[in-house]
Each structure stands twice: as structure tokens, then as C-alpha cells.
RNA sequence: GGGCGCGUAGCUCAAUGGCAGAGCAGUGGCCUUUUAAGCCAUUGGUUGAGAGUUCGAAUCUCUCCGCGCUCACCA
């Protein structure tokens, strides 16, 4: 199979016309991509200043810069809307101010999508719209390819209907630049995303946590059960893994007497892609010395609700058909009880996988066969319980055998102090009282190694350096991990991770030449 | 990776075996307060790619490419 990138094999007819305009501009001595631009006001600033000035009968001069989104040419008049970072504003070109030649020039040479600089005076049109009456204008950047421009229609009741908007999911994701350029609400999603991350950071900073950066390229991966991406360092001549979690490095810092640490960054997992999974995703983890999972629970509900309050101005959010209230305290549900409620089976009464599977089948359920007890519990959880957890819920106390880095409950070796936070039926975070006994940790590594002998990549590899660190002494601590993308989905009411990632993972663009197949 | 579905003009969509179309965008013309501006005219297509069935394929079949949904996987 021959591979190559698709590099716009040929210009379309629309593009050829625009290229011709480029040449004509240059022939007239006009640079279509000038080096510098000027601007005195954004669209919103110009309108705001005009609205206060017009009461006093004061004139507002403004130079604006932005992208042409619509034009309406009428012979001796032209109207246009440009859009900048603050919004849209109408331009009014009139023969009185600029002369017929410049009107014709604008109509002929300027297309939707072009960047323009306009200087003039603010005024109000007959229909009452605050508008810039243009005295002078200048091309800032010509768009060679037509933007997939939409038209906005404002109905009587003020609602805006967008016609022929770019909707193709593939083009929107692949050409996010075009999606952002024509769909303003997409820009808002990413502004909100930035605000959420900033707010998380501020919350943790304010609580005295230290933000740190740990290696993305790691000689040994760990901290989660996931397949890693493998790469190679040439000079060191060794394979490296892209991290699947931050956990083991952050906990090494507790050994180093840093008591409260966190990191927000990218994790990489070489696994399936779905509406809630991307191969690289943003994770928040923190570790808190001398705290346990109950304290982490309280901090979690404070953190998530305060982020919502700060970013959205409310703790009551909408997600799909659900009205969700993030106000603390959140419901706390012991996992054993939760599973008993939805399946009628008490996992504590069945301490091996055969017994538990039999009990489930006796209730008419169809659990997967040939798996560990931990996996059976996981199945009960994800199939039966999770979908019912719409309002924020902490599910707590998990089986030890699916939690190799969590600390057992005192006097209950089969159960660990762990919780997961659920909202809208999906998991947003995972936390536990961290295991800090180096000898116990070593035996857990060995245990996990045995469980995954068939699948080399997924097993927890022994991390000798981590054990060495633990042997110096690690304070008791509570740890926390949250998929930031999931939180962003929740707070923006987007139901696909692709909607809240600027550049989600997609197959490489390539094509087979006619007749050539593998 | 499995199952189901989709792919038609720059964008949004029609055409279900019988001449590939519409609106917007574009191009030419008219128009001094428009705002999906309007009116007249007009350009634009390898119907994702390739093969097959048929007198005839956007439409039916197969292969491939891409995307979506879903299952599996996934702390």
C-alpha cells in the first residue's frame, strides 16, 4: 500500500478565483498578507464605548480587526459583519465616505473568511444596530480556501438559527481550525475547558498543594492497569514508556517530605478509542500526606462543586436529560451495599470467583466466565450499578484484588479504603488511602504479575525503584486521580470526549491510489 | 478487532435502477439602511476509491478508505 498525505491535490474552482484575486491585489501594489495590523478596539469595546458616548452625543472613532463572516452588497452601499475575539460587529461601507471605487474594490476583492482592518466612526443604523461606518479599510489576510461559512438568522423572538453550519463530525474534528472559525459555541467550550483547569489549579494551590512535573517518558510504567505506548531512546539505547499515570512518581515525592503535591498533565494509554476514551487524556492527581480517603472525599466534593460554581456560576448542572446537583455533601454508598441493592448478591458472602459467579447466575444474571472475583465485581459495578448513579455519589470500599496500590481496611484484608466518584452514570475520579507498606506493596506487585501472565503489556511491572523509595518510609496519605476530560464533558454538557479535545486522535489522512491495495 | 450505519457541489441537503438537483457560497448585472438582504442571469460533480451485475448504477453486489453508533477492550 502506498501511503501519502493528502495535500490538496488541486485547487477548487472557488480557490482558483481567490488566488486570482491575490494576484490582482499584488498587481495593484497591495500586499494581501501585510506584516502589521492596527486595532484600537475590539468589537465589544467599540459597541460598549459607543453606547455610553451616544447619550452624551460624543463621537467614537475606532479601528477594528477581524474576520469577515457575512457581506451584503447593495451598489452604493455595502454591509458586512466581522467577527473578532469578542464577538461580531456590523460594518457599513457607503459611497459618501469611501467613494464608489472603494465600494467596488471591497465587493470584488474581499470574501467571507478574509481578515480585514477597518477604521471609522461608530453609528446606529435605521434598524438600531450599533455599526462601524467605515472610512478606510485594509486587507489583513486573504483566505484562499472558502470557510465553510454558516449564516445566522435571527428570528422574531431573538433566537438565532444557523443555516448550513459545518456539522460533519469528521471535518469538525480533523479541521478543528475551521470548526472553531465558523462555530463560535465551539470556542466557548474550549474557553470553559481552560477555565475549569485554571479553577482546579487555583483550588489546590489555595489548599497548599505544590504543583509538580514528573516524567512523561518513563523506563517503567505503572500506577494503573493499562497498555502503554512504547518508544525508544537512541543514545541510552533503551525502551521508554509514555506514562499511563503519575501515581508512582508523585508518591515518591511524599517520601521526599513534600507533603501535598499535585500534577495536571497528559496520560497515554494504548487502548480503544471511544466516546469517553482518547489515547492521550488529561489527568489530575494529588497526594496528601497524613490524610485518608475520607478526607480526600470531602476535598473532592468541595473541589468539583467550587469549580462548577466558579466556571458556571452554579452547582446545579444539566447533563443530557439529567438535572444534577453538585452541592456538597455527596451521597456516600458502600460498594457492597450498592451492589447488593442492584443485584441482590452480597459480595462479602462470596469470597471466590466460582461462588460469586454462581450466586449471580442464581439471580438470573449473566456474568462473564473464567474471570477473577475482582473482575466479576467490576462487571457488577459497571453493568448494574454505575448507570444508576446519576446524582454525585461516592462509592467506597473496594475489593483488594482490583486495587493493588490501595491500603486495606484495618481488620479487613479483603477490602481496601478506596472510593470512586460517579456523576451522571460515569466515573469521574478514583481515590484511596494509599498503600505505604513496602513489603505489602512488593507482594501486591507479585500478585498482579501473576494475574496477567497471559498479557505481558497489561500487567503491573515490578518497580524496584519505587519499592526502594517506600522502604525509606512513606507517610500515610490519601491519593486522588480524576479524568479532567470527563469533568469537562460533565460541566459543558458534551457527550463525546471528541467535543472537548481540540485535536482528538484520528486515523492518519491517507488514501490508496487507484488499483493499489495491500 | 466484531456488528450496524453513513459518505452526493465549498457548506447544508434532495434524487431508491431511467437526463445528478436545490438553498447558501461563488461569478456577471440592478439596487444609498441591509442583516439567511432582494431581484435577474450563471459557473460549479470521477456521487469517497476500485471492481462487478444491468440495456442503463448515486441507487444493487463485492473489496478497500474514512467517519459515526455500538460491543469488546478500558481503574
Tally the helices: 15
Whole-angstrom Rg? 29 Å
Secondary-structure-derived class = alpha+beta
Number of domains: 2
CATH-defined topology of the largest domain: BirA Bifunctional Protein, domain 2
Mean pLDDT: 89
Main β-sheet description: 9 strands, mixed
Broad shape: elongated
Kindly state the percentage of residues in helix.
25-40%
CATH architecture of the largest domain: 2-Layer Sandwich
Instruction: Look at the structure and give the CATH class of the largest domain.
Output: Alpha Beta
The counted number of beta strands is 21
CATH superfamily of the largest domain: Bira Bifunctional Protein, Domain 2
Stretches where pLDDT is under 50 for at least 5 consecutive residues are: 1-9, 511-518
Q: How much strand content do the residues show?
A: 25-35%
> What is the rounded distance between the termini?
5 Å
Strand and helix layout:
Blueprint: H1 13-27, H2 43-53, E1 61-73, E2 77-84, E3 87-94, H3 95-98, H4 100-109, E4 115-124, E5 130-141, E6 151-154, E7 160-163, H5 169-174, H6 176-182, H7 184-206, E8 210-211, E9 217-218, E10 230-233, E11 238-242, H8 247-255, E12 260-268, E13 280-289, H9 293-312, E14 316-319, E15 322-325, E16 331-334, H10 335-343, H11 353-362, H12 373-385, E17 393-399, E18 408-409, E19 412-423, E20 426-433, H13 438-451, H14 464-471, E21 477-483, H15 484-492
Parallel strand pairs: 3-5, 8-12, 16-17
Antiparallel strand pairs: 1-2, 1-4, 2-3, 4-5, 6-7, 9-11, 10-11, 12-13, 13-21, 14-15, 17-19, 18-19, 19-20, 20-21
The structure holds one RNA strand of 75 nucleotides.
